[in-house]
User: Fold these one by one.
Assistant:
Number 1:
Amino acid sequence: MSKSTPDPIIVVGAGPTGLALACDLYRRGVPCRVVEAAGERGTRSKAIAIWPRVLEILDGLGVAEAAVRRGVRLHGSTVWSRGRPALGFRLDTLRTRFPFGLVLPQYETEALLERRLADLGGKVERGMRCVAVRQEGRAVSVRLAHPSGAEEATAAWVVGCDGAASAVRESAGIRMHQRLEPAGWIAADVRLDTALDPDGVNYFLAGGRVLHVVPLLDRGPDGMLWRITMNVGRVRPDPDEWPLERLAAQAARRAAVPLRVTEAQWVTGFRVRQGLAAHFRDNRVLIAGDAAHVHSPAGAQGINAGLQDAANLGWKLARVALGRAGDELLTSYDTERRPAARATVRATDRATRAGTLRLPAAVAARDALWRFAQRRDLIERRVVPALAGLSARQPRSTVMAAPRVRLLTEASLSAGSRLPDVRVGDDALWDLLAPLDYTILLPGRQHFDKAEAARLPAGIRVVDDPSGRLAEALGLRGAALIVVRPDRYIALRGPADRPDLAARLIPV
């Protein structure tokens, strides 16, 4: 089924999602065309936080090290209610090589990904606006407008990563109901006179008013730059009506600790938009990132959800384009990522509503619930892994067996869970996996015999465990067979003597 020349792919949009997808395709030997309406990269960003799972994705793309050097590490968060800490958590106990969050403005993330794309042989064609797409049998026609005229391009696959107002989604006829939340918000990049720790996020809540304070960038002798966000009424605020004095007064009034805004470098107003596309694939057109889902910035999940779309879609689209799998493999992208996006929309909506409660009785009940969760260690065991993106489970699909048990922590080893990156002797487990393909782990077993191995697809890496260290690291008492997908999720956990199960599940 394989072929030497991949089908042409057009990625519309050079934000983080589109760039990450393009990098993933190129590193798998699948070139693509990347078109972007904007003539140049932006210099301001609302998307600034990257959580551990997406740092793992960026690591696979080859840019995590540079991102960590340029960003500000976040090691925890504190939520204040009515002037007192209501709950807090740390990230440094997570089972990942990146047990921290990272604050990095979106334009910095885009710069790193675009540079990596160039290293891989790709480029971004700027000033190319997608006007419409039209499917014609086994091809997609793309109408592009640019300063010197228009162009009709053809591709086997088109991926719309072109934002909430996606032209790809609209012209493909994929429905997406979006609604605006009633509150207006102000976000500003400021310098602060404060004793707040420069490695944590702080949420100050009181009487329905929110102040969100995040360390943004260390700009040398002038000190730390911070991002503050506040809800300020029921319409989208005009930044011109928020001079330094007004920003400073509102921030100081809402903070539970001494805090003074001394300089404002950038101010913007926005309203929260929520929406979820009816489906993420229509035949040969796919959508990802904000083109597929938009939600509240609570929990800073926007850029993280988009890059998880890219990580899920990249290896699947590459296998199909290279002829290593049939088109039906792409159905699993919608099957797996749309429920995850729906869960993110709901979770961020609930977090926003919880943070803006006004009635004293409701606030008291919320705070009591948070204290209970903190005492029972539910925040560390459930909330933090979910926020970090490590506990999300893939549902059963064409490339995912049905799990035997449903476990809710990032350490679970049933089908659908992320494989934890544990230490195996002197190695990190993920370093033993195939960089771009499936891996079969045999914890507690030495190897397959020739007859068993012959049943496997060609090129699959098998990691055996003659010393038993892998089984011990994974907490397994007996031998097992674990099939790990290219995106580091477990596709199957089964008996160690059944390689035929793996052969049936791996798409060829």
Number 2:
Amino acid sequence: MKRIAASALTALISLTALAPQPVRAEAETTLTIASWAPPTHVANSQMWPAFIERLEEITDGRVTAEVKLGLAPPPAMADLVLDGAADITYIFHGYNPGRFVTAQLAELPGVEGTAEAVSAAYWDVWRDHLAAAGEQREFKTLAMFTHGPAQLHLADPISGLADVEGLKLRSPGGVGAQVLSALGGIGIQVPATKVYETLSARAADGVTMNIDSRLGFKLDEVAPVMFEVPGGLYRGSFAVLMNRDRWEALPEDIREKLDAELVGAPLSRLFGKLWDGGDAVARESTQANSGPILVASEEDLALFAPIVTQAREEVLARIAEKGIDAAAAKAQFDRRVAQVMAETGDGDRE
């Protein structure tokens, strides 16, 4: 009897293994993502693939997306989506001066913390305070995030921050441009996609960008020296924006699932974490294959401290003019960064 039962069980297991498994539904909707960084950049090699994977998982394959490069220059990405020429994009707020003033809260220099922690804090503060300014009201905002601390990447070594005075440096716009000007640098306005050719032509002495750019934009080849300031010279502020009509056209149950499982904190934090990984790889590459990594001295930090203070005061004043409680927003931002750093254990390694 036991042999018969065992045989029957074996047969049942075999039939179960051979039975058709549940198949994910064929996509009903394919969204177009407009992206502007090079194919090898972390945004295109990791962030968008991770986004699409989560999009398909959450919607059981009913919604997917495809990435298209070069549809418009970086400063035009927001309007590209607003006009419906693409469904989703990510924008760098600093490319649109005067349009996204409250984003400068996340750009402030000297903020020590991982991109994951800062991005988690950024979403919470944007949701609770900054969104009320209405600067992204035309869009469905899917995420707010930042890259890691931006540093100086130079063709030739410097002895300290005082040597920045008079150097021609690619300026990112926003708070980064303000900090560069305070250091006495001569800002050259070019988008990230034009940095390599600008430096290779020696039209600039260097650039201020996050560490991942050493690989993502091939800075190792044209700016072998990195000068590092704790907390960075600024943070790049980014948003993932979706055409609102396209969002509203999705089935209600899909929108509810995406709002619950992807939009907001999950996506903001994921993109920040992936950028942290890109920074780590680029740092290792620089240490192994490029020029020196110079670290700011106590004298440099003393020079930089009043610049940090001035930038913070001016940014908070601009945000307050938008009707936002800027002091409360900054306090919440700082608390949340510290909280996530403690949760992840990254604060112990700072």
Number 3:
Amino acid sequence: MRLAVLANDTALGVLIAERLKATVRNCVVFNDAANLRRALRRETFDLLLLDEDFALAVDSYLPSASRLALDTTTIVYFASEFAASLPEDDRLVLPSQFEKLERIIASMFDRDSGANGDVEVFGKLRFDLTSMIVTVDGRPVELTAKEFGLALLLMRNRGRPLSRAHIMESVWGRVPDTASRTLDAHISQIRKRLNLRPESGFRLTSVYGFGYLLEVTKPGPAHQAQEIQTPAP
């Protein structure tokens, strides 16, 4: 999981990151909304944990792909208990309510790990999480472990642009090597092997300067894949 924390109190942000380091793969702390906005122009996160002081300062001046990614990202607002006036009891107050935050994160892990079953179905595609076999219309398709993980990640995030770093960390467990074409090669393979084409119900496109987007389409020959253009950061 990738988490971004925007805290008015830098020490609190660092404390949150330290507390969550055992469960969150990547936690980036910001103390300025402008810096977070710059990061969102090229990055995606699974969860944004935002100080209420910045509630209206994040989603402005973002390119279309970044705004779409933000619109489909879980955002949790919190208040610092060090603030002059304490918020209502039903709000997340940190650091005293870390357990509540950990429950939120645990529920996201359950959702993303397929905790409700060993099989996930997306249209004609069926992912068996135990055997790591994908079938298309009942026909098994041979995928490597990385291709399986990449395809499942994209399916679980359909309709949401994912940055290259997000994909690489989720599937390969590392930040992307800018000189490597590993991700692009794997994208090409799963597009071909799973027939991720508009006429088959899915459109897998590159988002220029950002990453990739898998969309659900209405099957038909009239749909043509197009590359999404976003301004350079």
Number 4:
Amino acid sequence: MFSVRKRARLAGVALAGIMLAGSAAANAGVVVKSSGPSADQYPVGEEVADSSTISLRAGDKITVLTDRGTKVMQGPGTFRVGERPTRTRARLTNMTRRNAARGARTGAVRGSGGSSGPDTIPNLWLVDVTRGGPTCLYNLDRVRLWRPVSEEAQTYRISQVGTNEALDVEFVGTESVRALDPAGLQLMNGQSYTITGPASEGGSMPNVEIRVIEMTEAFRQPAELARALVANGCMSQVAVLGNTAEAEAS
């Protein structure tokens, strides 16, 4: 039989192992953007230790979010993931907060070149009416839809799959963001919805299907948020996070 002293020593070793495993997970960065010949080797969503070394070829560009900041690596060259990352800026940090979606404005937003509306989605907590797949959201009573740049009013229909529940959402004028009225259609965690766009010149009605995942945990660091988005399969939002991280690290 084990002595009390030996049991205590074994328990201490086990606890130390758990603490080291937790520390290793906390010190792992997340690839949020990857392009070039080595993109398959470092896919978006991959976790890489801060202590790891990455060798890139010409044309490679990898963006990693770590708990200390953003590391953008561009080949050719060899890089240490945790070495001198760019400090996280206010806009990127704000994306980790539950109220980030509330700050997204409705109404017309000017893009580059004088066109109306942004060319790319400005906030990862908006629902992109052109992209399907899992969609992670906070407060389901305050959902906002986003459409790409347009010079005219358009109506999109969002319908709950398998039911008759549906709501038409009209983007007025050149506005790019429109709030979803929960009294007309309440999105629910785990449910799928079809978003049908206006008819194109050819007469077809494009549609995408999203699956809503309600987020309940607040994250202090962008890297923590990236891990949660990846775990839930919300990869289009990881892409938005990656674009923002890369732009702010430049």
